[in-house]
Amino acid sequence: MGVRIIDTTFRDAHQSLIATRLRTEDMLPVAEVMDSIGFYSMEVWGGATFDVCIRYLREDPWVRLKELRSRIRRTKLQMLLRGQNLVGYQHYPDDVVEAFVGKAYEAGIDIFRVFDALNDVRNMEVSIRKAKKAGALVQGAISYTVSPVHTLEHYMRIVEELLALDVDVITIKDMAGIITPHNARELIHEIKSRFKVPVNLHTHSTGGMSTAAYVCAVESGVDFIDTSISPLAFGTAQPGIQSVYHALKPELRPDVDMGLVKRVSKYLSDVLEKKYSHLLNPKVLLPNPNVVIHQIPGGMLSNLISQLKQENALDKLDEVLEEVPRVRKDLGYPPLVTPLSQIVGTQAVMNVLAGRYKIITKEVVKYVKGLYGRPPAPFSKEIVDVVLKGEKPFEGRPADLLEPRLNKCREEVRKLGVEATDENVLTYCLFPDTATEFFRGAPPPPEEKPKPQRSGGQRSYRVVVDGKSFTVVVRHLEK
Is 335:350 a contact under the CB 8 Å cutoff? Predict the structure, then answer.
């Protein structure tokens, strides 16, 4: 039997290429066709889709999931879950995590792909146990990166911890598109020979090696690979099923209907041209071999460019790209995936604009204090001295510090005059400010535009002094 396909067209593909802006109304017309292609599963939810739905599209993500489930009956549906972060950017209390996972399963999710940005399995435990208890399948995901500490044995220890939680599949999550064909072959062979567990490889085409990596992975016995449907493929997204199919030996190819794939591809071409062409930046479609060096995922690169534009400092981009690996080393070589990619990237921007660690973001302070989890390697002495000042970091599971919040959120939703359904309460728990605007029917915020260059103006910096965060505004006065 050939390799099985996890399709990402309705989630990671458009998140990577068009800023997660594909609307539900443009998914539904081909949902039933995609259900007939023969995919093992379809990733349709999670990641940034939840936030973008309510913040920018003003759509209810729960309604999207239910609409897709009503049309996709044969193919499993799956979601990307950031462990204790769920689909947000911070740790949520255990009661919120358990309620969210249970409701997502009830709404139609069959498979939960669970990861943690630091590969701290303690941050994955509650969501994995709840998903298994509910009856779902769980893919325990390793955030793949390259550093002096991320050795083969390092990854095997993570696999052991995940299998102790009874996950069904081990997913190698290469969010930056940096896995080489050789490393894919070696890692997959080691996992399967040691643990006899199904393995899934997820990668992006950012570095230009994805199709070659998939060919090597399939020849090494990988059970699942993630692809999307061209033209919503390649670049910073997953490789297209059309190309991967023909790159494989006939006996290793997936059992999918390529005629139906062609039909969906034609539909996507039309809808992208009519409604989303302004979002397709040619830069995200071109391979970037430098990603193997700086390991910056496409979404993180876009965020860095946005920050520099707002500071009228886009000319500093190359300096920031050189600073990112240095900050990452200082912070213990975290994988560059949400939220650590934003934490490392923002600190690199501040280092370039204001001087190395002259200004430290509150997120870096929280991270160094242990409030995100255990780093892969020790922090540099410089960052420890500046942030901790002799204080000992928290070494426990970060969520143990959080009070239950679900019932409080339910009361706050009622006070808004909104029906306190489980879905509404969970949406509010995750994004209270955005959810309030969404419930009240407020228009979406305008897309951010760079500030005009001028001799006068101001810059805002966040400064941490004795553990407290302050905003400092520097005004440039015209003479």
Answer: no
Residue keyed to tokens 């426990």: 396
Instruction: Extract the runs of DSSP E, i.e. beta strands, from 215-351.
Output: 224-227
Q: What are the C-alpha distances in Å from 435 to residues 101, 321, 440?
A: 19, 34, 8
Nearest to 5 by CA among 70, 73, 65, 78: 78
**H or E stretch covering 185:** helix 181-195
Provide φ and ψ at 321, rounded to 5°: -60, -30
What is the number of other CB atoms lying within 10 angstroms of the CB of residue 271?
19
- For the chain, how big is the Rg over CA atoms in Å? 22
Backbone angle region of 70, left / alpha / beta, with phi > 0 → left and psi within -120 to 50 → alpha: alpha
What is the reported pLDDT for 413? Answer: 98
DSSP codes of every residue in 293-322: HH---HHHHHHHHHHHHHTT-GGGHHHHHH
Tell me what pLDDT residue 464 has: 45
Residue in the block written with tokens 């020979």: 193
Amino acid, res. 289: P
Spatial contact of 332 and 373, defined as CB atoms under 8 Å apart: no
pLDDT value of residue 373:
96
User: Is residue 143 a contact partner of residue 113, using CB atoms and an 8 Å limit?
Assistant: no
Encoded tokens for 27: 């998914």
Is beta strand 199-202 parallel, antiparallel or unpaired with respect to 224-227? Answer: parallel
Averaged over successive runs of 10 residues, the pLDDT of the chain (479 residues) comes to: 96 92 98 98 97 97 98 98 96 98 98 97 98 98 96 98 98 95 98 97 95 98 98 95 98 98 98 93 82 76 78 90 93 92 92 94 95 96 91 95 98 97 98 97 74 44 45 47
Residue count (the chain): 479
Query: Which of 285, 120, 304 minimizes the C-alpha distance to 204?
Result: 285
The answer to whether residues 463 and 470 touch, using CB atoms and an 8 Å cutoff, is: yes
Question: Cα torsion for 330, 334, 335, 341, to the nearest 10°?
Answer: -70
Q: What is the pLDDT of residue 38?
A: 98
Token pair in block for residue 155: 């990854």
